[in-house]
Write a structure and sequence with these properties.
This protein is an alpha+beta fold. It contains twelve helices and 23 strands.
């Protein structure tokens, strides 16, 4: 089992380039594979999750070349050009891949089976299975609606008007991908607006899509045409250096050309309310997505009640927000984040237990927690194989009074390959050479 040892380091300084956005990289591969013609993807995340998606489409008959790191050339086969795999399709740890592929594969003329690693095999899939069955798909799963997903060859799918009970970009995207093949109009509405990466990218590939705050609709029967995509830096990966820059005294960092999709940047709004000193500079656009440099300096933070309307826009950033809250003056209250219970781990429980082990009082609720700001000491933290938990506690250790051992860190490669080297370059004290058990 891999593990890290981390401790207080130096003030964080310099300019840092963050790896490409994971969500956009997944979608770029998928839509380029279904498009007609050759697409070039630049800034592709070289992570285990996104590589798993690319490998799946290669098994489905799509030619994908990697002439250099973070570049993919995809020869699309068109909407109906995929071929059956001769075995199960392994999504690894990628929940995004499994949920989006369930929609896409539900519309194919051949059967497929989607499998994942131990963590993914515990994650709930009912949320995508139900709407896809409403469209006419035939999908079976293990008891408890968990993977593997066994998807039968499709008959005719029909468009639906689906009011999703959960605010989930993955559910929305799975239904939209099935809707590309469906008769009539497919419409999804949500209780809160979620990331609109799929909508923007479908438009970039030439599919007519209409969308607004909390809704999207499209008709089947069109074509996807090849295009070139520049993937911006991943905001969720940037969140660790961004938060560390807030809480490590003397820090002055610039994070370069980070994706600033408003459905992704709730953490910025929350940190600002807590007193963070973050400036948005050099704003521009890449591949239909807004990007900017983020200039962060250390500042004294204070606890707040996290606004409910920020929660859907920062669901992946809550682990590192828990660290900011632990180092803030007062109590930070999180509510409306029950989704964290069913991510790669139960992130509320994992963060609460880890922080308690480092001396911080955390009171859990079913959909959040009250984090009491305090002083961190050293200790041992279990990440439960969750990449974001591991990276969050690497940030915490930069303010701890003793060494922090973070166990089970191998899955960091799913979203942020090179995390340790990248963070050490800006001043983290972080060692990944320890191996135990």
């Amino acid at each position: 089992m891999s593990a890290w040892i981390a401790m207080q380091g130096k003030p964080l300084r310099g300019r840092i380039a963050i790896p490409g956005d994971k969500s956009i990289s997944h979608r770029a591969i998928m839509l380029a594979a279904l498009a007609e013609g050759r697409s070039h993807i630049h800034g592709f995340l070289e992570g285990a999750d996104t590589r798993a998606t690319a490998a799946i489409f290669q098994r489905l008959g799509v030619l994908i070349e990697a002439p250099e790191p973070s570049v993919r050339i995809v020869d699309g086969v068109g909407l109906h050009g995929l071929k059956a795999s001769n075995g199960a399709l392994d999504c690894g740890n990628a929940g995004t891949a499994m949920r989006l592929l369930s929609g896409l594969l539900a519309a194919q003329a051949f059967a497929s089976t989607l499998v994942g690693d131990e963590s993914l095999s515990r994650r709930p899939m009912r949320r995508v299975i139900e709407p896809l069955r409403m469209m006419g798909a035939c999908i079976d799963s293990n008891a408890g609606d968990v993977p593997p997903l066994r998807i039968a060859a499709a008959g005719t799918l029909h468009g639906i008007d689906y009011a999703s009970p959960v605010a989930s970009a993955q559910v929305k995207s799975a239904v939209l991908l099935a809707g590309l093949y469906a008769d009539g109009t497919t419409r999804v509405s949500e209780p809160h607006p979620t990331r609109d990466y799929s909508e923007r990218m479908l438009q970039a590939f030439g599919w007519p899509v209409r969308f607004g705050e909390g809704w999207v609709e499209l008709e089947g029967g069109h074509r996807l045409m090849a295009t070139d995509i520049q993937v911006p830096a991943d905001f969720s990966s940037a969140a660790f250096a961004l938060t560390a820059g807030c809480v490590v005294p003397g820090s002055d960092l610039v994070l370069r050309q980070v994706g600033m999709n408003p459905r992704r940047t709730g953490l910025l709004r929350v940190l600002a309310q807590m007193g963070a000193d973050i400036r948005v500079e050099d704003e521009s656009g890449q591949g239909g997505e807004p990007v900017a440099d983020l200039h962060v300096r250390a500042a004294a933070l204070h606890g707040i009640d996290v606004p409910l309307d920020c929660v859907p826009d920062m669901i992946d950033e809550f682990p590192v927000l828990f660290i900011a809250a632990a180092l803030a003056d007062g109590i930070t209250r999180v509510r409306g984040a029950a989704e964290l219970r069913v991510k790669e781990s139960d992130r509320i429980a994992a963060m609460a237990n880890g922080l308690r082990g480092l001396g911080i009082r955390v009171d859990e609720t079913p959909d959040g927690a009250d984090i009491h700001g305090g002083t961190l000491h050293g200790g041992i933290v279990e990440s439960h194989g969750d990449h974001r938990i591991a990276m969050a506690f690497a940030v915490a250790a930069q303010r701890a009074s003793g060494e922090v051992t973070i166990r089970d860190t191998a899955n960091v490669a799913t979203s942020y390959p090179g995390f340790v080297a990248s963070m050490r370059a800006i001043g983290f004290a972080l060692n990944d050479e320890l191996r135990d058990g």
